[in-house]
Structures
1.
Amino acid sequence: MKTKLNAELAKHARLPESVCKRLLYARAKMGWINVKEEYETVSLRAEKNVKCKGCGKRLKRSKTFSQTLNPFNKKDGRLKTRQEIYEELSKESTAWHLVKEYCKECKTNGNVEKNVSSKTITVCDKCLQASCWQGIFMCDKADIAGTVEKTIDELKALNLENPCYWESA
Ligand SMILES: [Zn+2]
Ligand SMILES: [Zn+2]
């Protein structure tokens, strides 16, 4: 698989990098190249024991944060190191720990605090910023990025951009 991808890269070596990326990802999406399986994944599993914010029932929640060491996962123009990825995942995990949790019953009964902080905002899944997804300040991975939902509490803890971008989302 790796040689296939390298061959693809070589074939498009004369094209601008952004065009290359788009071609590869378009192919990956169609299943011609499985980009995801190629690369080492750095992941961080987080767990928390919290009380339901609605009824106080004990809850156990877990979530895994991950990124791959792929050629497009860059920071300041060079590949991110495992350590850098780990630090980013830790930030996401810290933010997730602050999210209010509700049990199933409270969710079905609507016994959920109707405040803005439990509302989720769509952000770029590469840089975790709403301004990028909205096309205001696009990160260098915007052309291959997808989206992810984050609560305002998580975004506040991440502190990556001005909160004004979450209002229009
Ligand atoms: Zn509850
Ligand atoms: Zn972005």
2.
Amino acid sequence: MDVASITALIMTLALLWPAIMSQQSAMATRNPTEDYDRRSSAWRQSNWTTHPNVLKEWSSAPLALPATEADDGFNLLFQSNRKELSNFPVTFEQPLPPWLIGNLVRNGLGLFENGPRTFLHAFDGFAKLASWKFFGNSTVLFSTRFIRSDFYKASKEAKTIAPYLLFQAVAPPFGYVEKLQCLVRGLDNMNVNVYAFPNPKTGRAEYAALSDFWILYKIGIENLTTVHRVAPKLKNRQQTTSSWLQGTGFLDLLSSAHPLPEPGTNNSLTFLSSVAVLPWSRNVISLIRVKSLKRRTVVAQWNVGRVPYMHSFSVTATKAILLASPFYVNVMCMAKKAEPFSCLDWHPEEKSTLYIVTLKSGKVTTVHLDNVFSMHHVNAYDVGKQEIIMDLSTYPSPDFVKHLQLHVMRDPLARNSFDAHARLKRFSINLKKLEVREIPIDSNPRPSLATLLDMPVINEAYRSKHYCYVYGLVLKTDNVTLSNIAIVKKDLCSNGTGDRAWQAPGNYPVEPWFVARPDARVEDDGVLLLPVLDGNRRSTYLAILDARTLTLVNRAELPTNIPYSLHGRFFPV
Ligand SMILES: *[C@@H]1O[C@H](CO)[C@@H](O)[C@H](O)[C@H]1NC(C)=O
Ligand SMILES: *[C@@H]1O[C@H](CO)[C@@H](O)[C@H](O)[C@H]1NC(C)=O
Ligand SMILES: *[C@@H]1O[C@H](CO)[C@@H](O)[C@H](O)[C@H]1NC(C)=O
Ligand SMILES: *[C@@H]1O[C@H](CO)[C@@H](O)[C@H](O)[C@H]1NC(C)=O
Ligand SMILES: *[C@@H]1O[C@H](CO)[C@@H](O)[C@H](O)[C@H]1NC(C)=O
Ligand SMILES: *[C@@H]1O[C@H](CO)[C@@H](O)[C@H](O)[C@H]1NC(C)=O
Ligand SMILES: [Fe+2]
């Protein structure tokens, strides 16, 4: 947090002091590619099921784990693993495609408690990176390492969970003074995603670990080293109030763990939600152009009455689209509790709002649509000048986020008792009439299993363009047991007839990443890379699926298990 933010925060605290006080008590040889493509190995088919017609499977024979089969192994996803490894050679069961060269880096959760204290919400686990370096030969080197954030170091030093802002509380809870420290220090645990930013000076990419907040941590993907914390400055912020307040009066709070490339440039885009902390300043959402890790400029800035929680957004060839659902930050509550996830108010009766920003001019168009909530936008593209197609992984409310508590995730009864299905929805935005209309994506009124996906990934070459395939995760595939998890492929171009799913009992996959085969002529020619926890063997393996058929084509056992991994990317060399 920079000086201005601290000043702003102190001012807020001063303003809210009475309220705080009153709450105190309450509180692969010859042709390696050919070899690779030959699919004969028995293990590939053995216990795995790939469903050519998901819809049929889904409606007639649920992909259920026998009710008696324990899914204890699932809990390993939410148990700490302190083990760190550097360049550990892992062996794939089949030859690797020679074109698969690069570094798959993933971010996620590694430690759920420290000393006497434990986190309550799964999203608060200490950030732990995992990487797989592919050299185009049979060697793959695996590494895993915690991010040495200020939070991690302070916690290690103090032999407990140090007071830094978290999504939710810890047990035993922070005291009053510690809560103030949480507010001042902000969120420092970058456990959500990784991204590459260009460095125009060196011409080489710089990598960072990200969360839903404005700060980030620069990391080295060669050895997963933590370089330093970065609090990017915004130089051309327009002031809504007097200029002497330049940079103050705002608490730069929420941003996105999912930056997107700005088409036709080497820039990326993200957003920033700034909370007004002085009576005469107003809440502002800004669309930000990211030129490098640290250099950022404002594309557009607009005032909002309340600050919505947004996790991701969409970009077409010409526009950025932000979906603000009526899920607002309660500033008073934040000041009192210092727990963002406890201080978000959901208003089911209110409409959602789309902010459509023209990238060239910065013009902002506002369109309302029926109440809907989304964590992950899939993709969006322009159709002529008057229409945008936007795909979202939606939920009727943000309730499921609240269920992602450690005690719920670790208890089969509790975790099986909530609706864990997302619903992929396609919207057509008419820019002339300023209307939003939902377009059906399944020919059958009953959604295909693949339609229930979240954690969407696409072939990045189709980002901001017309595309057909989205891959993702579906939990609770039998609609009974949360840990029945499938990797799915949704076909958006032929009414879902190309939908596929892949799953096996007692195997828990996380979000995949799509790597295209070089010279690929079709969108889905490539592989999906993903860690899968084998609950029976209590170990994780890296799986390689053929993205066209969604069949398992290769895998490598890892020397240790990986707790829940949220997002990642493959950085080609
Ligand atoms: C298939 O499942 C059986 C029992 O569930 C197990 O013994 C066997 O090792 C599995 N085979 C593979 C290739 O995973
Ligand atoms: C694979 O390539 C890497 C990097 O060029 C090299 O260090 C390694 O020894 C190679 N492994 C084999 C088995 O050839
Ligand atoms: C990681 O690599 C960098 C150089 O790329 C080096 O400065 C640093 O010491 C290495 N860190 C570890 C932990 O090996
Ligand atoms: C993007 O970066 C590459 C490599 O640095 C450079 O050759 C290219 O001209 C840049 N493109 C734009 C649009 O700036
Ligand atoms: C799952 O079950 C719930 C009730 O138990 C039902 O409301 C819901 O529609 C079912 N979901 C699907 C996709 O069939
Ligand atoms: C998908 O189904 C809808 C409604 O059944 C139909 O109008 C449309 O032409 C179909 N599209 C394709 C590509 O088959
Ligand atoms: Fe995310």
